[in-house]
Amino acid sequence: MSVHPDLHQRYVQACQSLGRSENPFIAHLLQEASKDYKNEWTKGITLKIAGNNHLVPVQRVTDDDLQVLTSILRNTVFVTGLDLRYNVLTDAGAKHMAAFLEENSTLQYLNLMFNYIGTSGAELIAKALHRNETLGYLRMTGNKIGNKGGMFFASMLQINSTLEKLDLGDCDMGTQCLIAIATALARNRSVKAINLNRPLLFSEEEETTVHIALMLKNNSSLVELHLCKHDMKNFGVERLCEALYENSSLRYLDLSCNKIICDGAKFLAKLLKRNQALKILDLSANRIEDDGAIYLSEALAFYNRTLQALSVVSNNISGKGLVALSDAMKSNMELSYIYIWGNKFDDATCMAFSELIQSGRLKPRCTDVEPYRVDGHVHLAELSHGLKKHYYWMPSYGEVPNRDANASLAIAAVSEH
After folding, report:
1. What pLDDT, on a 0 to 100 scale, did the predictor assign at position 53?
2. How many CB atoms lie within 10 A of CB 167?
3. How far apart are CA 308 and CA 305, in angstroms?
4. Would you say the pTM of this structure is higher than 0.90?
């Protein structure tokens, strides 16, 4: 066992030697971390220095603060995770982080989501990961690294063999770097989960989806894939389904916020009849309507016994389609999570899902609706459950007790940071 490190004392000394002012938020969290050290030293701890912490006074982390922080953590072996989301870090801060990643050999989890890191910062961090052999999970969500910044991460994926989860959602990436990332993933065998949400695409040809589909034909390690807001239509869905006939590794497919209609749902239904790997399918905010829901329910009722979670939130589905999905759950015992809010509920829908919940077939924490009665009629109220409940926000008070309410890889686990 190593000597107990007093992180707070080292932080005070580092601020003095570097001529920086102390950040009271960092100082408070380091005091708490030092107290936790005795119990956590064997498995490591994550320092949660998130700028959106509402339970304590927050002074958001600046580039200068990060320079001091990385200087004291460089040789601290029991800190294995660093959560710096929602702070004010820029490319100058990314330079300090890149130097830290090149020297540190214990950090496994790094969350930089929604800072102000741009293209040059992305280059520094991506190049640091050419040499880093310990980081397993990196979140760059919401940093506007652009197409050029994405290209540096595509190059990194050709070299790095340690990173398992990479989140590049909302990063303003373009067609060129998405194709480059797909090309790199065709050969990469370490990445298990990748988020490519909301790129900036200016073509109607769906070239990026075609290249991602080609990648899925060759990749046998990717487990989780997010393609939200890709302007995907039925053509793109058909290409993905053709690829997934041959893919036996992907478990979580996120196609939310696209332009998929009933014909696209028909391709997915055909896939579900044959694919024995997919466990989570997110179709939120598309427009599959009743016909699409019926295609899916038929596949789930009579053929598929693998899918565990389905989200059809806000898909313009009325009672006919929703009742078909509820009927599918009566014959398919494997489908445990279903999210339906934002569609057109009628009396039959409310009764069908009320019966599923009251009979115990559908657990309250596994759906986003809750039945209640008014004047003898059953209605459905919304619950704040879903596949991405904690994508942008995690409780400051600790771990989520019911992880299945934020299904993601909690259902189909890969590895934890």
Report:
1. 84
2. 22
3. 8
4. yes
Nearest to 138 by CA among 99, 193, 179: 193
412, pLDDT greater than 50: no
Pairing of strands 109-111, 79-83: parallel
Fold entry, domain 47-58+79-416: 3.80.10
CB-based contact 160:135 (threshold 8 Å): no
Radius of gyration of the chain (CA): 23
For residue 89, which phi and psi values (nearest 5 degrees)? -75, 140
CA separation for the pair 31, 161 (Å, rounded): 35
The residue whose two tokens read 């707070």 is 8
Mean local confidence (pLDDT), 390-404: 68
CA separation for the pair 186, 181 (Å, rounded): 9
Kindly state the tokens that stand for 131. 């040499």
Q: Could you give the CA distance from residue 311 to residue 316 in angstroms, rounded to a whole number?
A: 13
Tokens 């708490």 sit at which residue? 32
Q: Of 246, 306, 301, which is closest to residue 281 (Cα–Cα)?
A: 306
How many Å apart are CA 183 and CA 120, to the nearest integer? 23
Tokens coding 191: 């990445």
Q: Where are the domains of the chain?
A: 47-58+79-416
- Taking Cα atoms as reference points, which of 17, 106, 108, 144 lies closest to residue 68? 17
Q: What pLDDT is attached to residue 386?
A: 87
Per-residue pLDDT of 38-63, as tens digits, reads 555 567 888 999 999 888 889 999 99
Q: Check pLDDT > 70 for residue 28.
A: yes
DSSP state of 417: -
Three-state secondary structure call for residue 42: coil
Kindly report the average pLDDT of the chain as a whole number: 91
* pLDDT of 325 over the 60 cut: yes
Q: What span, in angstroms and rounded, lies between the C-alpha atoms of 138 and 124?
A: 14
What phi and psi values does residue 48 have, to the nearest 5 degrees? -100, 85
Residue 197 and residue 226 in contact, taking contact as beta carbons nearer than 8 Å: yes
Burial string for 113-124 (b: 16+ CB within 10 Å, else e) reads bbbbbbbbbbbb
DSSP character for 302?
H
Name 278's Cβ contacts closer than 8 Å, sequence gap at least 6.
244, 250, 251, 252, 253, 271, 272, 306, 307
